[in-house]
Design a protein that fits this description.
The structure is a single chain. Helix content is 1%, strand content 41%. With 384 residues, it is mainly beta. A 4-stranded antiparallel beta sheet has the order 1-2-3-4, with no helix packed on it. Strands 5-6-7-8 form a 4-stranded antiparallel beta sheet, with no helix packed on it. A 4-stranded antiparallel beta sheet has the order 9-10-11-12, with no helix packed on it.
């Protein structure tokens, strides 16, 4: 699966790197608790992970591929991290919850601390601390000791998108000089920073989603004169393109999943987008917001707009390699459900041949030239 960086607060429903587990902060008001979903079995099921005290509404949860759930809590100016997991039965109350404390990070009042999307290795977890003119990336789980600082950048960063399967290359949206540009951070080289998006000199260029298999990038930029969704290919000489069908979806459209396994075929990747609404936050079971679902491929000039499922959680979901889109939902009647959808097939194009000329088979198209491996920021914006 491919995980995106949301443009608002952390998602209410987070799926592990391999799609095996998911986690959310369930409940309402002062009765919130972490909840882990198992997604790789015959049927999805949820396990509550409550502790003696309910969780604050601003706590964040992130699932690991071993079934444990990382939780991030804010206590005054300290941000604490712990791993939660179900233990033996607690009798009629259900399974008990075990907790392994991982330490914390001190942050000033003007700094914000957020969990980054699940790391590709499934065992590590990272947090981003931004504010006060600098940003730092911390490994809060999966390292030799936790937490540990792994990168420091000038400027205020947000977002967070993984660019490879090894969990080494991380993309962040960095604001410096009043402009936002996506940069890549090499965690294997002490946080070395390189430009990633430079569509125009005075444009704000954010990376929303990336697929490591095909190199497909989903971008939001105001280089065309207004903030629009566009797409490009990492390392390609071709320009970033801004399809009209994505412009018609509106400024609130956010891509959240890309079909994996399409190596060297970025234009054939199916992309899922949340269209408008809030898609239902944690605790909104049965209401589901008013978000719609958009399905699109770069090779097609049409965006298929569908109605999102009732109780859709956080506008989240994942594509499988065989082209199935799985959307989690929770309602009063079904507190743990997954709806499966597929990419609609475009209508066939019928070509009428002249009656005076016998129809001839069309020649096979010439194979496309291999793209020159140059950074995406060097690709021109002209010629869209």
């Amino acid at each position: 699966m491919t995980v995106c960086a949301t443009e608002t607060a952390g998602p209410a429903f987070t799926i592990a790197a391999d799609g095996s587990y998911a986690a959310r902060l369930a409940g309402e008001g002062e009765a919130r608790f972490p909840e882990r979903w198992t997604l790789d079995g015959p049927e999805p099921y949820a396990v509550p992970l409550p502790l003696e005290q309910p969780e604050e509404a601003d706590s964040e949860v992130l699932p690991l591929t071993d079934g444990r759930v990382l939780i991030h809590r804010r206590v005054a100016e300290r941000h604490a991290f712990a791993l939660l997991y179900p233990t033996g039965s607690g009798g009629s109350a259900g399974p008990r919850t075990g907790e392994l404390a991982l330490g914390g990070i001190e942050a000033r009042e003007e700094q914000r601390v957020t969990l980054l999307p699940p790391a590709p290795d499934g065992r590590s977890a990272y947090a981003l601390v931004a504010g006060g003119g600098t940003s730092t990336v911390w490994r809060v789980a999966g390292g030799t000791s936790a937490p540990e600082r792994v990168a420091e950048l000038a400027g205020s960063c947000s977002g967070g998108v993984w660019l490879d399967r090894a969990g080494r290359m991380l993309a962040l949206d960095r604001e410096t000089g009043g402009r936002v540009k996506a940069v890549s951070v090499d965690l294997g080289r002490a946080g070395e920073v390189s430009p990633l998006l430079q569509i125009a000199e005075r444009s704000d260029d954010r990376l929303l989603l990336a697929d490591p298999d095909s190199g497909l990038l989903l971008i939001r930029s105001d280089a065309p004169g207004e903030p629009r969704l566009g797409w490009g290919v990492l390392g390609s000489a071709r320009p970033v393109r801004f399809p009209e069908c994505l412009r018609a979806a509106g400024s609130s459209a956010v891509p959240f999943a890309v079909q994996p396994g399409q190596a060297l075929m970025p234009e054939s990747c199916a992309v899922a987008l949340r269209l408008g609404g809030d898609a239902g936050a944690a605790g909104d079971a049965g209401r589901g917001g008013d978000a719609g679902l958009g399905l699109w491929r770069p090779s097609e000039k049409r965006l298929f707009e569908l109605r999102g499922p009732v109780g859709w959680l956080g506008g989240a979901g994942l594509w499988t390699r065989d082209g199935l889109l799985r959307l989690p939902y929770a309602t009063g009647d079904e507190p743990c459900g997954v709806l499966t959808a597929t990419m609609p097939q475009p209508a066939p194009q019928i070509r009428v041949m002249p009656t005076s000329v016998p129809a001839q088979p069309s020649p096979l198209p010439a194979p496309p030239a291999a793209p020159r491996p140059v950074p995406l920021q060097q690709a021109p914006l002209t010629g869209r």
